[in-house]
Amino acid sequence: MITEATNTIGKAIALSTAKEGALVICTSTTLEKLTPIISKIKENGGIAIALEHTSNSQQSWEKSLSFIIKTYGKIDCFVNCASIISPKMLLGLTNEDLNALQNTVVSPFIYGLKQIIPLMVPNNSGSIINISIVEGLNGLDEHHPYTAIKEVVRSYTLDAAYEYASCNIRVNSICPSVSTTPLIETTFPTIKPYYKKYVQFPDFGNPENVAKWVIYLASDEASFITGAEIVIDSDQIIQ
After folding, report:
1. DSSP 3-state assignment of 24?
2. How many independent structural domains does the chain possess?
């Protein structure tokens, strides 16, 4: 199950995991946005369904997972792609900004954990993968509130990894830096000087870099890995 599979990284994860043979459940608040992704997966011989789902709604989580269990019997992997970015500093945040950060970054992951882990426990297996950012580990001068919110999700990830290790449920984070997206491609000349403040590596990463790690962490090959924070950032974190 991939939440917010319509964003660039979510789409790459859906396409890549389907190619590896996974039955992929792509979710979004708008089904129409998932149509091109599902069509492409099926054209390539993969199996995928689109599921209308609101990640920050407990009721939606209950409804979605009830459907998944009734239809497929279990859920093996949950990939959390829900996120938002806020360019504002702490004193510039309005109450609406704070609520948006909470409802788009923290709540979807916590609701997912609360609903999915009880379904994985009886199977004594499961992989939960949180798509975070490297700034959640080392901070970013211009985005303090955003990185603080990501730190909250990071803490929950580690807590869940520790608490459910005995149930063979693995909970890991992938922390990429800037990835190539259509928006980045069009604005790269403008943001390159800013980007170069933090890294020496000449290129951006791409969504497929993240997708490859999702494939690994979702597989039995990663059966001894939990609580990990996989950094995909060229050399940003070592600056």
Report:
1. strand
2. 1
